Amino acid sequence: AAVAAADLVTWLAAAALLALSLGVALTVLRGWLFGPLRVLQRRLDADPRLPTHDGELLGRLDAALVHYRGRLEASADERAGHLDVVDAYRASAADAQARLAAADRLTIAGQLALGAAHEIGGPLSIAMVCLDSQSEVGADPPSLLRYRDQAAEALDRVDAILRELSEFGLPTSAASSEPVAVVALVERVLRLARLHKRCRSIVLELQVDPTVGAAACAIAPRHLEQVVLNLLINAADAVDGGGEVAIAIARQGDRLLLQVTDPGPGVPEALRERIFEPFFTTKAAGAGSGLGLAVSRRLVVDVGGTLVVAPAAGGGARFVIDL
Fold it and tell me: How many CA atoms lie within 13 A of 48 on its CB side?
């Protein structure tokens, strides 16, 4: 609807510009052609022996020019109003995209929270056992120190899980202009992905080309986290809970390529663009919102990158982020 409205406004603006051009032409014509005629009118008016019908003609022409000038000024005001409407549509579209990205991020955060509850259970059990053991009467000091260290290590693990989860769930701010080290960020995303119930049963393999090093890209860290997590969760769905998903990072000139490959059924050629449309999904009802890939492409395109899907060499799908 916003695009259709913007298209209509564009035509209206073109019509207004045409009218404005005609007004300028008429103004120039008025000065060039009717200036000498006004001089003639004053001379005619000054001589009572001559008829006055020429002066009446000039008066009518002048009134007509005043009328058209008023029409042009009104058209200019109308054009300014249409431009304000276009700006409002653009602001609304940007706000809607930001809300979609936030909704998708919160959906992933909720799914990760369910997995975090499972991951936290183990370290908490260890910490509780160690604390109970410390309270035993007659425990020797070395055992107490060992129990304390084990409990502290388990609680540190719980703290790390909760900290990573809470940082991911925070609202996203405007895209940062500071470059982000991609390899370090992907390693952190892999730790988050293992909290997701659909990713716990698959093998996540990270392959980094030696030429990448500490290469950085100008994209907000939270945005890249969201994109990579979406791709990993989709890959886990594609392999149906078992298999290996490869994440490869390579450098190509001044571009960085991040590829997520899965050995699943792949994406039919007819759907390779449609899957990036908002609310389009090939999953069963209730299994997906259809926002993940649409939001991911938008976040990548906004910083001058691309996100495409292609068939994998050995079968399956290969999603490529180019930054």
Answer: 0
Q: For the segment 1-45, what is each residue's pLDDT rounded down to a tens digit?
A: 666 777 777 878 788 888 888 777 777 766 766 677 677 677 766
Q: Which residues have CB under 8 Å from 127's CB, separation 6+?
A: 150, 151, 154, 155, 158
Q: What is the DSSP letter of 275?
A: G
Give the 3-state secondary structure of residue 205: strand
Q: How far apart (Å, rounded) are the C-alpha atoms in residues 225 and 259? A: 14
What does the block give as tokens for 59?
A: 């008066």
Query: Rounded CA gap, 251 and 265, in Å?
Result: 28
pLDDT of the residue at 195: 79
Q: Around Cβ 290, how many Cβ atoms within 10 Å? A: 15
Nearest CA to 71 out of 136, 16, 112, 144 is that of 16
**Residues in the chain where the model's pLDDT stays below 70:** 1-3, 29-30, 32-34, 37, 40, 44-59, 93-98, 102-103, 105-106, 109, 111-123, 133-141, 143, 161, 164-177, 241, 283-290
Contact 277, 294 (CB under 8 A): yes
What is the number of other CB atoms lying within 10 angstroms of the CB of residue 75?
19
Residue 208: per-residue pLDDT: 93
Buried/exposed 123-155: b ≥16 CB within 10 Å, e otherwise: beebbeebeebbeeeeeeeeeeeebeebbeebb
Q: Quick check: 53 and 7 in contact, CB under 8 A? A: no
For the four alpha carbons of 226, 227, 231 and 237, in that order, the dihedral sign comes to: positive
